[in-house]
Amino acid sequence: MKLSVLATSVAGLVLTGTTLAATVELRVMETTDIHMHLVDYDYYSDSTNVTVGLARTAALINQARAEAANSVLVDNGDLIQGNPLGDYVAKGRVLRFGETHPAYKAMNLLDYDVGNIGNHEFNYGLDFLNKALHGANFPYIVSNVVVDDGDDDPSNDQPYFQPYLIKDKTVTDADGQLHRLRIGYIGFVPPQIMVWDKDNLTGLVKATDIVETARRYVPEMKAKGADIVVAIPHSGMVDSRREGMDEHATHYLAQVDGIDAIMFGHSHTVFPGDAVFDDMEGVDNEKGTVFGVPAVMPGFWGSHLGVVDLTLEGDNGDWRVVDSQTEARPIFKREGRETVALVEPVQEILDAVATEHQGTLDYMAQTVGETTANINSYFALVQDDPSIQIVNNAQTWYVEQIVRGTEFDDLPILSAAAPFKAGGRGGANYYTEVPAGDIALKNVADLYIYPNDLKVVKLTGAQVIEWLERAAGQFNTIDPSVSEPQPLVNESFPSYNFDVIDGLSYRIDVTVPPRYNSEGVQVSDQHRITDVRYDGEPIDPERDFLVATNNYRAGGGGSFPALDGSTIVIDAPDKNRDVIANYLLSQGTFNPSADGNWRFADWGNSEVVFKTSPDAERLAPDTVTVVRQMDDGFVQYRFR
């Protein structure tokens, strides 16, 4: 009996605290920015897409889990919004309380340990978010969203969600012995949610600074017994100077004491790997560390699985990370123009969401009009474009109706829209194309991929020009004295910030440096935007204009001058996408041709190049010629 009691006591000791030094290998896996790409399917082209889908990422999860004795799995957010399946669940069939959201029908099969909340989780409002989260059989965290109780004293802030979680994990060491490891998870979301989803959040919640929130909670987690802390920031990484309330805060977060691993996301890039991280201070883009802290960001739409392998050593319950290795495992690779799948989808995931998938197909097939010409975004970054023209036409049409008989009835109306699908990080197939003929709801969603709300701002002519100056950061500076080919498009500038404003005509002089930097700060007194005209005459800088846009831009998204929410004069009751659908229904048959209201100023005899989809050649204007096929799947073009 004494021997039996002794054996039980020793077993308990091994699980609750290590008495001798032990080595444990722990694998932390991450998905992020799924954006409702649960199925390997493109709802816009009605075809299988091997570059996306949690169903394919699930195969990597199963493989990575089988390789490791000890593993955990986290999701970083931006899950429930992003493609027609997300809109169908939120707006088409409408999720009811008590039902399981299809995202969780899939994810509940994969044994997630914890989920973080991303900024796009708020797009459909807090009520919908709470209904959706009710279906997850794993806990959710986010630490920097607090209840808005009208009290400005931060010491009284009460978290709206669970800020962090400490979970016990039984792990096996190198000798096969069992130990208890207490893993702390803490989540973060960009504080800019209060701008991007102002209408959904104002008066209900507030957002706090990511780094300051970490400094508050990480010591608390350690004091409560967390052996290691895994941070899950839905936040990208830049190495510019910290400003506070930063959207991309991972670089600074890595310098907070007590964080042992960072599973980050939001900016749709891959770390380690993407060249943008090569020269950042404190970043090892091969090993996958940021100031020595292991970190990973696994792309978007299920394109990669993030894997951080931690080597832990423990002595009397004091665990520490002594080594690590990080990788972002892809579900596909590119071989020239070919896209090659590296895994097959997990059928169990496809079966779990089959009903909603079919419902989305039926929902998106509804016809709303007929186009007499092809609509595409292949050349949207280098010339006025039909995919943007339709959006601007629809927004102008809508605002003309809602201002009749109001105090704004006599103000000129402009409209701003940007190309959402224009290659970039989305890859060589990430473009809009709608053939001539019937146009369906799926095509409207392809033209306008975000569930934004239409807003109208009132600006002076001078402020409109500054808006265009900020958008012109889309282009590199071209040196007319250089004979070698010069790339026109700044690939680090997101195309959704390249606003084209209709109702004006103007030129963009790319031989002049950008007036604003990537953070929206004015850094030059020069002007790229020239020859701005309204109704054929030079624009009056003092004249007032109404400009149709969306809630993201009007509220400050993209850091555009004079757009911080204070210039909004009309909070429209409709979403931009609904406005486009209603416009097309009102037109019946329409011609989508662009009106050519903007073009580049002369850059001399310089050879200027850009890249676009290999599908663009049959629709290329005669101002461009093909140069070469590129290794990343794009085709390089030259302006004549």
TrEMBL record:
<dbReference type="GO" id="GO:0000166">
    <property type="term" value="F:nucleotide binding"/>
</dbReference>
<dbReference type="GO" id="GO:0030288">
    <property type="term" value="C:outer membrane-bounded periplasmic space"/>
</dbReference>
<dbReference type="Pfam" id="PF02872">
    <property type="entry name" value="5_nucleotid_C"/>
</dbReference>
<dbReference type="GO" id="GO:0008663">
    <property type="term" value="F:2',3'-cyclic-nucleotide 2'-phosphodiesterase activity"/>
</dbReference>
<dbReference type="InterPro" id="IPR041827">
    <property type="entry name" value="CpdB_N"/>
</dbReference>
<keyword id="KW-0547">Nucleotide-binding</keyword>
<dbReference type="InterPro" id="IPR029052">
    <property type="entry name" value="Metallo-depent_PP-like"/>
</dbReference>
<dbReference type="InterPro" id="IPR006146">
    <property type="entry name" value="5'-Nucleotdase_CS"/>
</dbReference>
<feature type="signal peptide">
    <location>
        <begin position="1"/>
        <end position="21"/>
    </location>
</feature>
<comment type="similarity">
    <text>Belongs to the 5'-nucleotidase family.</text>
</comment>
<dbReference type="InterPro" id="IPR036907">
    <property type="entry name" value="5'-Nucleotdase_C_sf"/>
</dbReference>
<feature type="domain" description="Calcineurin-like phosphoesterase">
    <location>
        <begin position="26"/>
        <end position="269"/>
    </location>
</feature>
<dbReference type="Pfam" id="PF00149">
    <property type="entry name" value="Metallophos"/>
</dbReference>
<dbReference type="GO" id="GO:0008254">
    <property type="term" value="F:3'-nucleotidase activity"/>
</dbReference>
<keyword id="KW-0732">Signal</keyword>
<dbReference type="InterPro" id="IPR004843">
    <property type="entry name" value="Calcineurin-like_PHP"/>
</dbReference>
<keyword id="KW-0511">Multifunctional enzyme</keyword>
<feature type="domain" description="5'-Nucleotidase C-terminal">
    <location>
        <begin position="382"/>
        <end position="564"/>
    </location>
</feature>
<dbReference type="GO" id="GO:0009166">
    <property type="term" value="P:nucleotide catabolic process"/>
</dbReference>
<keyword id="KW-0378">Hydrolase</keyword>
<protein>
    <submittedName>
        <fullName>2',3'-cyclic-nucleotide 2'-phosphodiesterase</fullName>
    </submittedName>
</protein>
<keyword id="KW-0479">Metal-binding</keyword>
<dbReference type="GO" id="GO:0046872">
    <property type="term" value="F:metal ion binding"/>
</dbReference>
<dbReference type="InterPro" id="IPR006179">
    <property type="entry name" value="5_nucleotidase/apyrase"/>
</dbReference>
<dbReference type="InterPro" id="IPR008334">
    <property type="entry name" value="5'-Nucleotdase_C"/>
</dbReference>
